[in-house]
């Protein structure tokens, strides 16, 4: 161990510094995307995977545990499949049927976010919640497990801790890949290029499964490079299969990536008449697929038939070429290449031309050509495919779908440069300078996404008015999740989904006995119209704007008084 630490002391120091950078930015994170809150609720809430504004959760709990999960094991599974396909087959209570908004307490909100006594190790609930969504359950299992360490508490450090572990695993995998590529001198520059980039920081800050996805995708690439180096023999079959299973159960985009690599190698082996090796390469993949499908059969519908499936088109907002441009811009921005991308490419081309003229370029060996192919070609094809199928393109939203590529792009960039500069010391200095310049440029001039710094002001307002009722107006079924920390702070919250009839609920005993309450209206709604409806139906007659935020939060907060 002492010898290992001594030999890798600079690599370990680099990892420690990059982890410190992640702690610096997580301390700046104040708010959440609604999908991030969904990560907590779907992992920890035994009633439902979404926090409803009416009595759905309790009713759903009644149906699930009192009607569905009854009888022997076979009967329970049969009922569960029926319930997931059509909950209407089971008797609803009055609250669930009418979907009438009700006041939700701070304890209700905390119950959604955090582990309670009866929730601990309730992995069936996690599995069930995910069966109603479009993602596999492994990430949510780990969130549930980690949340038990923060019993009855909600903290941004729960998923951050998970992301940080997989970030460290990704950095270690970069080292292992560079060792297999015979370029140990590129390890630290590549770690810095990826680990200090806005892309890596944003991946760690984003409290979803994409850091996990990145790790398993890169680990799969490592086993592929090792497979090539070992003359197309898989020497770590158990861990290879386990990697595929874990990646598949983390996020379905993993399948796209590994299928691309699999096809490249399968074609190569078949063309070279290596039929037995091709079959031996195929077997662990099919074994992992069978295990994954048996463990989570809902994946079939998720992948092929859901609104996020490979054939979905309803959620596309841009053309294919616009999407390609978008992802290209995202890669440039998240590696902080905005102002120097053309300069770096020009320098690289000039050096390359010079090397060609001087005949100083090394001959690329067959193994290196194959390594280059399995590293670079899947990046290009993956971006093309994701541009075609990924939903909801918009600012700071779908860079998530290419996050798994960021460390691979870093590896590919410096691996290509290694064929231009023969001297390893020169190569180390050049790549280190490039990675440091890009990282410093990014840290000075850019900001990672998913920090939601303005939300700190919202929580200050909530804490100052924690003894008051809170009325929240929005216009869909999901985005209110990003306000869950507020619901867990105010005395009670009434969440109204822009339904004119629901505003009549403001005339009730709870609000009538108070002199004021706090109102939140989303900025994209007709605020004047909604404000008038609130005043008209509540019996209050005056208001004061307390906070108006257009970035991150997009909400206006009012004090409503009599």
What do these coordinates show?
With 562 residues, this protein is of the alpha/beta class. It folds into 3 domains: 5-159, no CATH class; 160-445, no CATH class; 455-561, 3-Layer(aba) Sandwich (D-Maltodextrin-Binding Protein, domain 2). The protein has helices at residues 2-7, 9-26, 34-44, 56-68, 73-85, 94-98, 106-113, 123-131, 138-147, 157-180, 187-195, 198-205, 210-229, 237-248, 253-271, 275-295, 299-304, 320-334, 341-357, 366-389, 406-417, 424-445, 455-464, 484-487, 509-512, 527-538; strands at residues 103-105, 469-473, 492-496, 516-522, 542-549, 555-561. Strands 1-3-2-4-6-5 form a 6-stranded mixed sheet, sandwiched between helices. α2 (9-26) runs antiparallel to α10 and α14 (237-248) packs across α16. The longest helix is centred in the N-terminal third of the chain and has 24 residues, at 157-180. The chain is globular and about 85 Å long. The N and C termini lie far apart (71 Å). The mean pLDDT is 88.
What's the helix and strand layout?
Layout: H1 2-7, H2 9-26, H3 34-44, H4 56-68, H5 73-85, H6 94-98, E1 103-105, H7 106-113, H8 123-131, H9 138-147, H10 157-180, H11 187-195, H12 198-205, H13 210-229, H14 237-248, H15 253-271, H16 275-295, H17 299-304, H18 320-334, H19 341-357, H20 366-389, H21 406-417, H22 424-445, H23 455-464, E2 469-473, H24 484-487, E3 492-496, H25 509-512, E4 516-522, H26 527-538, E5 542-549, E6 555-561
Parallel strand pairs: 2-3, 2-4
Antiparallel strand pairs: 1-3, 4-6, 5-6
């Amino acid at each position: 161990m002492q010898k290992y630490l001594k030999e890798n002391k600079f690599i370990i120091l680099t990892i420690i510094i990059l982890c410190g950078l992640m702690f610096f930015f997580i301390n700046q994170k104040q708010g959440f995307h609604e999908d991030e809150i969904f990560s907590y609720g779907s992992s920890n809430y035994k009633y439902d995977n979404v926090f409803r504004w009416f009595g759905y959760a309790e009713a759903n709990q009644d149906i699930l545990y009192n009607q569905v999960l009854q009888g022997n094991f076979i009967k329970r599974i049969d009922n569960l499949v029926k319930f997931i396909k059509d909950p209407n087959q089971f008797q609803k209570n009055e609250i669930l049927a009418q979907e009438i908004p009700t006041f939700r307490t701070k304890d209700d909100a905390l119950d959604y976010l955090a582990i309670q006594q009866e929730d601990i190790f309730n992995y069936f609930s996690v599995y069930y919640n995910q069966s109603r969504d479009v993602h596999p359950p492994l990430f949510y299992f780990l969130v549930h497990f980690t949340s038990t360490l923060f019993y009855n508490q909600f903290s941004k450090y729960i998923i951050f801790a998970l992301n940080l572990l997989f970030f460290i695993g990704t950095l270690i995998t970069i080292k292992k890949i560079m060792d297999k590529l015979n370029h140990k001198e590129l390890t630290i520059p590549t770690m810095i290029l990826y680990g200090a980039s806005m892309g890596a920081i944003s991946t760690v800050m984003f409290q979803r499964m994409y850091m996990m996805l990145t790790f398993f995708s890169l680990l799969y690439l490592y086993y592929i490079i090792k497979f090539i180096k070992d003359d197309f023999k898989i020497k770590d079959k158990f861990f290879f299969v386990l990697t595929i299973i874990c990646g598949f159960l983390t996020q379905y985009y993993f399948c796209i990536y590994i299928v691309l690599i699999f096809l490249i190698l399968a074609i190569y082996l078949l063309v070279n008449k290596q039929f037995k090796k091709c079959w031996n390469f195929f077997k662990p993949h099919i074994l992992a697929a069978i295990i994954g499908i048996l463990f989570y059969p809902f994946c079939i519908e998720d992948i092929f038939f859901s609104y996020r499936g490979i054939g979905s088109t309803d959620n596309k907002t841009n053309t294919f070429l616009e999407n390609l441009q978008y992802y290209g811009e995202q890669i440039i921005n998240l590696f902080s290449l905005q102002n120097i991308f053309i300069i770096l490419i020009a320098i690289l081309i000039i050096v390359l031309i010079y090397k060609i003229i001087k005949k100083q370029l090394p001959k690329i060996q067959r193994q290196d050509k194959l390594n280059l192919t399995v590293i670079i070609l899947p990046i290009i094809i993956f971006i093309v495919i994701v541009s075609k199928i990924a939903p909801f393109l918009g600012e700071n939203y779908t860079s998530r779908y290419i996050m798994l590529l960021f460390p691979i792009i870093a590896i590919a960039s410096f691996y290509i440069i290694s064929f231009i500069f023969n001297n390893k010391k020169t190569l180390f200095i050049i790549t280190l300078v490039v990675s440091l310049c890009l990282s410093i440029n990014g840290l000075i001039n850019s900001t990672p996404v998913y920090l939601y710094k303005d939300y700190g002001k919202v929580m200050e307002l909530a804490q100052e008015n924690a003894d008051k009722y809170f009325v929240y107006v929005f216009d869909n079924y999901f985005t209110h999740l990003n306000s869950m920390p507020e619901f867990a702070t105010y005395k009670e919250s009434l969440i109204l989904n822009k339904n004119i009839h629901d505003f009549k609920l403001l005339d009730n005993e709870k609000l009538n006995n108070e002199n004021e309450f706090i109102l939140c209206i989303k900025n994209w709604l007709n605020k004047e119209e909604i404000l008038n409806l609130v005043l008209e139906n509540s019996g209050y007659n005056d208001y004061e704007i307390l906070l108006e935020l257009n970035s991150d939060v997009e909400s206006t907060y009012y004090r409503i008084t009599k």
